[in-house]
């Protein structure tokens, strides 16, 4: 899903969520041939009825009217995280429309669809939060549920907790939400504890994996592999929805995990495998956070696009000279020269020698696995 209109979602000139990351990703993907002969689908803005699947009518009114009211309208709008900007409703609705179009194409028979402008996972029913005005992830998932889907898995690999999506489906057993994120004691929004499991009929269908600052590729992948595949295999989703924020990288200025672009590429490839083996190949892919705008996001999400399209980009592939020249004209920071950080994303599976991430693995498995009929202490489950 792509339209230049996605670049209009610019909260302010100096806001960390800068749409240049989207433009640079598309330029890099084109430069490396990832998008050759690929039809880009241009979405329409989500309608009020579509947005009201997860947002209140009063909130939509506030978003639409906010640019005309200098005193502000509440609902989390007009803060440093979510400043008011002209065209806020229109640009936010367009991103939600992109994720809706991706969901529709999957419902119509496509196996995979991707909206890198999406992944605005913090927006709540009645307020903006964490750079997110409308929660396109929840809008797309709710649309699928309304079409009769009964099991949707949402796996969020952004460094921040996927709180808005979790809140939207906290009591709904049709949606399994899994969030891998930096520990809530150390990073906004301060939620996403292993004890947050869902409520009522949804008990056990919210899964949170809080990772200590400094967790690297090996630790992150060890935790993911010890928890996520077993849950997806047990749940058997009809569609896997992935929020693929690139802010887990060691270079990201807003968080403290230590992943590499190579590790992120490994994550995307593993989720593709899990979509194939647990969800019948149905994979709806969304972007998310990522604030190393020049060095990380374009490379990480070009790898993501390559994985979605089965056009995997080799890690050592050089960056096109014209892309480097363009990016260099926009930043004073040194730029990488290829698609790798030179890191080895291999890891030792859980169940052998002790690793620093193991207490988190054990805590999460013991909290969640029994609710799905799985043995929390058996590495084979």
| CATH architecture assignment | 3-Layer(aba) Sandwich
What's the number of structural domains? 1
Q: What's the mean pLDDT score?
A: 97
From the 3D structure, determine the CATH topology: Arginase, Chain A
Structural class label: alpha/beta
Find the CATH superfamily.
Answer: Histone deacetylase domain
Radius of gyration: 19 Å
- Shape, per Cα inertia axes: globular
Portion of residues in beta strands equals 5-15%
Structure annotation, total helices: 11
Please outline the major beta sheet.
6 strands, parallel
**Uncertain runs with pLDDT below 50, 5 residues or more?**
none
Query: How many E-type strands?
Result: 6
Helical amount among residues, as a percent range?
25-40%
CATH class type: Alpha Beta
Q: Order of strands side by side in the largest beta sheet?
A: 1-6-5-2-3-4
| N-to-C SSE string, H for helix and E for strand | HHHHEHEHEEHEHEHHH
Instruction: Report, as a whole number of angstroms, the end-to-end distance.
Output: 36 Å
Question: Can you give a write-up of this model?
Answer:
The chain is an alpha/beta fold and 381 residues long. The chain has a single domain (4-372), classed as Arginase, Chain A (3-Layer(aba) Sandwich). The protein is 34% helix and 8% strand. The chain has a six-stranded parallel β-sheet, with helices on both faces. Helix 6 links the parallel strand 2 (152-156) and strand 3 (175-182). Helix 4 (88-107) runs parallel beside helix 5 (136-146) and helix 7 (217-235) packs parallel to helix 8 (261-278). The model has no long low-confidence stretch (mean pLDDT 97).
């Amino acid at each position: 899903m792509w339209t230049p209109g996605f670049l209009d979602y610019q909260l302010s000139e100096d806001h960390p969520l800068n749409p240049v990351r989207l433009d640079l990703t598309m330029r890099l993907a084109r430069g490396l041939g990832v998008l050759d002969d690929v039809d880009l689908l241009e979405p329409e803005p989500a309608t009020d009825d579509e947005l009201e699947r997860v947002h209140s009518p009063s909130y939509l009114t506030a978003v639409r009217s906010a640019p005309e009211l200098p005193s502000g309208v509440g609902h989390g709008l007009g803060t440093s995280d979510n400043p008011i900007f002209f065209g806020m409703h229109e640009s936010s609705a367009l991103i939600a429309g992109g994720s809706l179009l991706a969901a529709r194409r999957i419902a119509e028979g496509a196996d995979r669809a991707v909206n890198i402008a999406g992944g605005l996972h913090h927006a709540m029913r009645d307020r903006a939060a964490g750079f997110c005005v409308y929660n396109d992830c929840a809008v797309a998932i709710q649309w699928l549920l309304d079409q009769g889907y009964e099991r949707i898995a949402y796996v969020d690999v952004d460094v921040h907790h996927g709180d808005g999506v979790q809140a939207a489906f906290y009591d709904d057993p049709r949606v399994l939400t899994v969030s891998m994120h930096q520990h809530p004691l150390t990073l906004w929004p301060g939620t996403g504890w292993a004890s947050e499991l869902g409520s009522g009929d949804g008990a056990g269908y919210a899964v949170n994996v809080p990772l200590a600052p400094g967790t690297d590729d090996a630790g992150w992948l060890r935790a993911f592999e010890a928890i996520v595949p077993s849950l997806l295999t047990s749940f058997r989703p009809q569609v896997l929805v992935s929020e693929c924020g690139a802010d887990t990288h060691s270079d990201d200025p807003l968080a403290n995990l230590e992943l590499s672009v190579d590790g992120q590429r490994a994550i995307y490839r593993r989720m593709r495998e899990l979509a194939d083996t647990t969800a019948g190949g149905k994979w709806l892919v969304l972007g998310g956070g990522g604030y190393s705008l020049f060095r990380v996001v374009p490379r990480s999400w070009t790898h993501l696009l390559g994985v979605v399209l089965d056009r995997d980009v080799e890690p050592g592939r050089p960056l096109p000279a014209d892309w480097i020249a363009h990016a260099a004209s926009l930043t004073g920071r040194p730029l990488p020269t290829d698609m790798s950080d030179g890191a080895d994303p291999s890891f030792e599976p859980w169940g052998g020698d002790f690793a620093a991430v193991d207490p988190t693995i054990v805590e999460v498995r013991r909290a969640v696995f029994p609710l799905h009929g799985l043995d929390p202490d058996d590495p084979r489950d």
